[in-house]
Amino acid sequence: MFSLESSRRMVARTAAVALAGAVCAATMSGSAEVIVNGKDSTQRYPFMVSIPVTGVDDPTFKGVCGGSLIDSKWVLTAAHCVDPKLVTLDGTVRIGSAWRNSGGTVRSVEKTVTHPRYENGDNAGPNRNDVALVRLNRSVTEQPIRIADRPGRPGTATRILGFGTVDDAPDLNEWVFPNRLQELDTRRGAVSECAPGYASDTRLCTISQVPKAMARNGDSGGPQLQRDRRGRWELIGVTSGPGAPGVRCSEGPGLYSSAPVYAGWIHKEMIRNS
Question: Among 3.40.50.720, 3.30.70.1070, 1.10.10.10, 2.40.10.10, what is the CATH number of 4-32+46-144+263-272?
Answer without folding.
Answer: 2.40.10.10
